[in-house]
Amino acid sequence: MKLTRLISLAVALATTLGAAAKGTVRLQDYLQADSTSTVDAMPALRAALEDCARLRASELILPGGTLPLKPDGAFERYEYISNNDPSMKRIAFLLEGMKDFTVRGNGTRLLFSGFMSAFSLEGCERIRVENLSIDYERPFVSEGRIVAAGDGWFEFRFPDDYRVDLHDGSLRFRDAAGKTYPYSSLLEFDTERKEVAYHANDYWIWGQSYPAVKTAEGNWRLYRKDFGTAQIGNTMLFGATARWNPAFTLLDCAGFTLADVAINHCGGMGVIAQSSRDITLERVRVEPAEGSGRIVSISADATHFVNCKGAIRMIDCVFRNQKDDATNIHGWYMSIERRLADDRVLLRWRNSGQYGVRFLRPGMQIEVVDNRTMESYARVKIAQVRYLNAEYAEVRLAGRLPERVQPGHVVAEDGEYPDVEIRGCYIGNNRARGLLLGSRGRIVVEGCTFHTPGAAILFEGDGNYWYEQSGVRDVVIRDNVFDNCMYGSLNWGGGVIAVGSGIPEREGARYHRNIRVEGNTFRGFDERILYLYCVDGFTFRGNRIETTSDYPAYGDPDRRFVVEHCDNVVIER
Amino acid sequence: MKLTRLISLAVALATTLGAAAKGTVRLQDYLQADSTSTVDAMPALRAALEDCARLRASELILPGGTLPLKPDGAFERYEYISNNDPSMKRIAFLLEGMKDFTVRGNGTRLLFSGFMSAFSLEGCERIRVENLSIDYERPFVSEGRIVAAGDGWFEFRFPDDYRVDLHDGSLRFRDAAGKTYPYSSLLEFDTERKEVAYHANDYWIWGQSYPAVKTAEGNWRLYRKDFGTAQIGNTMLFGATARWNPAFTLLDCAGFTLADVAINHCGGMGVIAQSSRDITLERVRVEPAEGSGRIVSISADATHFVNCKGAIRMIDCVFRNQKDDATNIHGWYMSIERRLADDRVLLRWRNSGQYGVRFLRPGMQIEVVDNRTMESYARVKIAQVRYLNAEYAEVRLAGRLPERVQPGHVVAEDGEYPDVEIRGCYIGNNRARGLLLGSRGRIVVEGCTFHTPGAAILFEGDGNYWYEQSGVRDVVIRDNVFDNCMYGSLNWGGGVIAVGSGIPEREGARYHRNIRVEGNTFRGFDERILYLYCVDGFTFRGNRIETTSDYPAYGDPDRRFVVEHCDNVVIER
User: Fold this and answer.
1) pLDDT tens-digit profile of B471-503?
2) Do A388 and B76 touch (CB under 8 A)?
3) B215: which DSSP letter?
4) What domains sit in chain B, N to C, each tagged with a CATH number?
């Protein structure tokens, strides 16, 4: 921006107005008019995006090559994003209320520096983003090569550009701008296999700091009493404390396609969509950039869909090496705090990751659920909603509150649920699980390959811990390969296909229904294939089971198929 | 709220509508209709305040007695408040755009629990708040009695309700709800005198944690290498990390009177007003509640006025024992980041305590100032402002940018400045200084008593550190008693009346003008009475100087009146 901004704007305007017939805005014109854009393309991008909105352009064309993007000139707004962390955020592509718009990436590499989100869309319709990649100069997670280990200590070597120093006697990571990258967990990855190390557990750090010293060789030795064994040469992942900056945030959008996009890194989930419908991901690749030398891709789940409708499609995608699950599809439960009147109730978010979400609307039908059994015992209609703040909402119903309602019970929207199609995807090498499926629409998982360290497919949902609505109704898992899953922590699911719902009183509870597992191949070293409870209707048929010696054998052959508190289960071995 | 909310609302409506002729809303009616209001009066207060706004009531009458107020049902909004800390805040009295409205306290004690702000007013006109007190069940600062001290350690006893435990090996304070009260500084107070201990310095904690252990007697021993001597029996104040919850926040208000109000505690400044005009504080008492046993009152400055206009009056007030200065009156400097064109400039906030402030407006005249000398070398008019985010703004001027402009220079509004009258106040026993005077209007300080640990009256302002516009033009300091000031840290001002402006190049710089000090009494043990630089026009006449032995003598008699880089200075001893 050392060239006059005036000229920049004039050029931009002339260009875009001239092209208005086609509705095409070319970022290149804005970049050329701004001499500082080789250092930071954000001012040019912002001008181009503002023109796109003003001119109702149909497409923004990126120039190819690498675009450096810094937070200084970025858009800003406070965002509550479900299952991520609220904050005042800097955002590169902020799209509000836009319709029928495409970002053509042209193979552009968006290279961010510092704390900023890549794309945030609210109230948009029919948006397509294609052919680009997203990476960060300095990742929000930190990787240290394990060079030595002893009783209660590990010794690490960090990349030279990590700017490690001692703060409060412990390790601190900063970037060139002096920003600190806080961490709250450690997890060992197998450097050779590029996946979570065999049976590795998370070391959680709840605000503590563990003493560290720098060695004469320039390595860093970190002390913690419960540090056990670690493989020399493996990579310790220092997990980010907060999920401030997802790559793609969708709030109240309808129609979104992400095609041929690589999310090499971001500081939160890769794609997080809430209260949105009709979302397609085609050839989306969550994985470290080639040649980056990084083991871990993004800092949280690859994708996550909350209270979405219509269709969710993930076709030919790769969800690899991210710091959490590949996807989680569920609704929201708010907890009943207090009965205020025969038709009025005070609701409260009980999971702080849901604070600020405002999904209840007049006219919406909600189900009332016993949090002990997850039984949905009533349906009522909302007449009026009054949000008191990010945590509480007062709701007036169109009818009477059921007598059975008591504090602790939960409510969720009970209307349209999304149909889910996951096809041809590779899912693995990440932390924890693969697909967490919690929609009551039709779900098909077909032709995928799983190499997850925990459960490949998990049925979750509960009203006491995470407050996520689930309870599937129609699931087909067909023709997939489950390739040596379950090599990570034993806390990450009871089987390759498993139920994980937190249901305190399981006797008689039947939360999930109608799951068919057919024609799949289960290759593995771990006996734990199925772990089911509270399911009504489950068929396991025509699957091939192969034993490998790729990892140390694990598990009890008698507990290969665990089925408890279920009805109508057919398992054909 | 166990009684039906419906009944509550009906009663409230009937009451207020019935009284609408007088425009009086009585909180008592709302409290009576809500059976849970004895535990938390916030829902009733919120309903009453919403009715006040809807009915355009002229007054809200509080019932007297103690009102417990909790954050659960409080208003919420994100606030950037100058010189405090931005956050998503819970607020009890949120008044937006209200006019001609009085809160009659009736002696009510507002007793808050947890992180919430008492009053926040935006865009209001002619508001009066009278006859109430503000306190917090659990203060945001923590006080520990020093029971023992050794080489590199102090041992403390904390009140039983502090819920102290060890976290990360160091002290953590929590409340009954489990909320943590973080601290980032320590300062010793003299328990007997109820003031900062003699020459005590702040121990700053920048994110570190220092090891602690619990003793057999239930005391807590804290280790830190630079802990020197401390008086057994004195009180160590653990200062709050952030200023999230001021007592009174005024944003863009005109006409505000606070009368007969005690601010016994709050988690930020007592009164912070920005871009507001005509503010009167009468008999406002910032001090610990009687019988509370607390040494320290509020966690930051008693009052603070930024870019205000009209009149600021503080009459017969008490500003005692707060954790920072009694007042600070100044403007804002934004820093010039880059010249964008002949008439366009990119501005940046350089003090993060000013982030998010949007005071620049089209038509506003701004001065352009050399940050090295604080010379104001040009005046220009703003044609257009575009806020990029909380940190940056693009400004187009009505004319050309002066040639002399360069990055680092600063700009501030140069229009109306407030006249300031401070009369009959007691100011002392707090941390740091008394009055920081930075208005270019007429300032009169008369009939006050000062017992400040640092400078009683300080002329600040700079364009390199705090970015606060000052440069006084007309100050009268008359008939005050400066009673044993300067007993605290030697960092808190060079004299009882002093300049503290950060001016890197003082030669020839004359930032402050026309200060008269007449008819005052200076009683003290410390030789440092005047410390002046960069002043043009200063008269010290008819003052009485008495030496006391109330504290150990300090200072060089030859440096009683320090005058450097000044013109037109008359000192009559």
Assistant:
1) 999 999 999 999 999 999 999 999 999 999 999
2) yes
3) -
4) 62-138+245-320 (no CATH), 142-240 (no CATH), 332-413 (2.40.30.10), 425-571 (no CATH)
